[in-house]
Each structure stands twice: as structure tokens, then as C-alpha cells.
């Protein structure tokens, strides 16, 4: 049965985050203060283009903010203030997502116990 026809608990989840690399990016950023593009790329064993496309989709949806800074001609890390703000945002999104998963599991447990 297609997800759209199921409705119910699936409607609570953002389908954009279901993809393995995107969910991985969100999870990795929830537990790390910061990660560079190359660190994320190594974590998920994906190409530059693949990781860039997934990060862009998450950024367009407002889940993450990608920043590219340079010192001279070399890439540089983001500022500590930006890092703290992003970390708080990712933590909030992760907490909300886990809450939705817990609610869906509790509902399923309740349904199973009623049978």
C-alpha cells in the first residue's frame, strides 16, 4: 500500500528525512559540534556530488544550514556562534523527530495489545 494511502502515522514523518544519507547527516550533526564536508563524505562513503545534493535538499527544507568560508583560497570552519546556533537547531529537530517516532511506536504497541 502506498504511503499516501496509509496516512496515519506516516503523515507525522517528513519523508525527506527517510533517505539513508539525509537521516545520517541529521544524526551525525545531532551528536557532533561540527562536521566538515569531507568528514560527512567519509562517514557515508558517498561522492562529492551525492553528498552535496543531499545536503542541499536538507538545507532547502530548513533542516540544516550549509556554510562555506574561506581563509585566503582555502576552506575554513564556521564561526563558534554559528556552530552553536546550528547545533541547537539540529538538536531541536532531532528531539521532535524522536518524539514522533516514540508516539508512533506507542500507538503500535497499543494496537498490538488490543488484539
Quick synopsis:
With 115 residues, the protein is mainly α.
Please give a structural write-up.
This protein is mostly helical and 115 residues long. The chain has a single domain (15-114), classed as Arc Repressor Mutant, subunit A (Orthogonal Bundle). It is 63% helix and 5% strand. The chain contains 5 helices and 2 strands, in the order H-H-H-H-E-E-H. It has helices at residues 3-6, 20-31, 37-44, 48-60, 80-114, and strands at residues 69-71, 74-76. It has a two-stranded antiparallel ribbon. Strand 1 and strand 2 (74-76) form a beta hairpin. Helix 2 (20-31) packs across helix 5. The protein is elongated and about 65 Å long. Mean pLDDT is 79; it is low at 1-7.
